[in-house]
Amino acid sequence: MLSFDEYFRNGSFCILPFIHQEKTFEGYHKICCYSNSDQSDDPAQNSAESFNSATVTSIRQNMIAGQRHLACQSCYAAEDQGLVSPRQHENQTWQNWTPSHPALEKAFANFTEKQPMTPVSYDLRYSNTCTLKCRMCNSSSSSAINTEYKKIQSQWPEKFWAKDNPRTRHDINIDTGIQKVYLAGGEPLVEPYNLDLLTRMADANPDLNVVINTSLNILSDRFQEVLNRFTCLTLAVSVDGLGPLNDYIRNGSKFNIVQENIEKLRHHEILFTSCVSIYNIFGISRLVKFITDNYSDCLQYNITLVNDIPELFVENTPPTLRPQIIGDLTECLNWPLPRNASVGIKNLRTLLEQANYDPERFESFRRYTKILDQNRGESVIAVVPELTPYFID
User: Fold this and answer.
1) Could you tell me if residue 110 is left (phi over 0), alpha (psi between -120 and 50 degrees) or otherwise beta?
2) What is the DSSP annotation of 74-143?
3) What distance in Å separates the CA atoms of residue 223 and residue 210, rounded to the nearest whole number?
4) Which end of the chain is more exposed for a tag (fewer CB within 10 A), N or C?
5) Rounded to two decimals, what is the model's pTM?
6) How far is CA 338 from CA 68, 160, 236, 330, 331, in A?
7) Is 153 left (phi over 0), alpha (psi -120 to 50) or beta?
8) In this structure, how many other beta carbons lie within 10 angstroms of the beta carbon of residue 308?
């Protein structure tokens, strides 16, 4: 049996298939949110059966043998481009979190001895209920977008697809050595099932590590009360620009309200996250400086890439506009940055330095933007003036 550290030095290994389960509001069990690959052999399998399925066992065996599994290709592809992948980030996070190591070692021992395994970490999504229509999101993760797409579907059926909005009440045994629970949505802080779960977790174990991915544009008294019962709470607050740019990208959000809600919960750990697209790549350095200057107590800042809407990929940035952005990103690296921020900045710079511009995809970006602008009564050039020459017909 390999030692604990040797697992993490394995170039194909990821901790998540061994310890983690994502439970979607559609009732599926996934390996993680990065690859969207199923754990289950078939949808009828329950949580325990999925976590011990032949599918996920095969992935674990490949990783132990140093072989890349197709289910995790998105991370390996990022690494092949010179980027730091979610696989690498998760490995480092869990490796550095030493209090969790006994639970990880038990999980590995159960795998080696072919004993039943149970998740140490959960990603729970009860519904896609959301009040926002973020431009890099879709119907799967926002009920508000789903409503909008039904109205504009005829303009681009392949892009603006609609679906049902199911809700699933996931059941987990809080007393089984769980190390971490991650809540996402939709918007977790408007979903009643999340309020019920948080209340039960606070009653059973207020020291449980809880991470909530939130826009923080809404914070009710009931949610604030239960959040304050936890001693190890991290709020991953999504902010994609300053003022009007953030509100344009995250339609329905109000930047000043987000700031006010941050102050109400600032005694917990605040982890800022920015999802970078062609909309905010021009202003990302200003956003980084704002967060660095105004939230110096923020220990971590994750800068990630849009990965669901190809029209918004950073690679769509016209080559003539890239040198200034690359220079700004390089300057950012000289600042006193929160943990992980430099990784995200370097990933952005690496992408912009490559010959990866596709004129056809840029035209799709223009089409996507114009349709949403018209439907929402917005204008991209009002918040991203750098794109003005490309939107004057």
Assistant:
1) alpha
2) HHHHHHHTTPPPHHHHHHHHHHH-GGGHHHHHHHHHHHHTT-----SEEEE--B---S-EETT--TTT-H
3) 14
4) C
5) 0.94
6) 31, 37, 14, 16, 15
7) alpha
8) 13
CA distance 22 to 47: 10
Dihedral in degrees, nearest 10, Cα atoms 341, 97, 239, 132: 150
Q: How distant is the alpha carbon of residue 26 from its chain centre?
A: 18
Q: Give, in order, the Cα–Cα distances in Å from 127 to each of 11, 164, 300, 347.
A: 35, 11, 27, 31
Q: Rounded CA gap, 170 and 175, in Å?
A: 15
Extents of the domains making up the chain: 4-123, 125-390
The CATH fold assigned to 125-390 is TIM Barrel (3.20.20)
Instruction: For residue 90, give Cα distances in angstroms to 96, 195, 213.
Output: 10, 27, 16
Inter-residue contact 187 to 162 (CB < 8 Å)? no
Q: Which two tokens stand for residue 203?
A: 């009653």
Contacts 24+ apart (CB under 8 A), 6-11: 7/64, 7/108, 8/91, 8/95, 10/63, 10/64, 10/66, 11/66
Segment-wise mean pLDDT, segments of 10 residues, the chain, 393 residues:
71 94 93 91 94 96 93 94 92 91 91 94 95 95 95 96 87 85 96 96 95 97 98 97 98 98 96 97 97 91 94 97 98 92 96 97 98 98 97 85
Amino acid code (one letter) for 342: S
DSSP designation for 354: S
The phi, psi pair for 205, rounded to 5°, reads: -160, 85
Q: Determine the 3-state secondary structure of 278 from DSSP.
A: coil
Judge whether 129 and 164 are in contact, CB under 8 Å.
no
The 3-state DSSP composition of the chain as helix, strand, coil percent (nearest 5) reads: 50, 10, 40
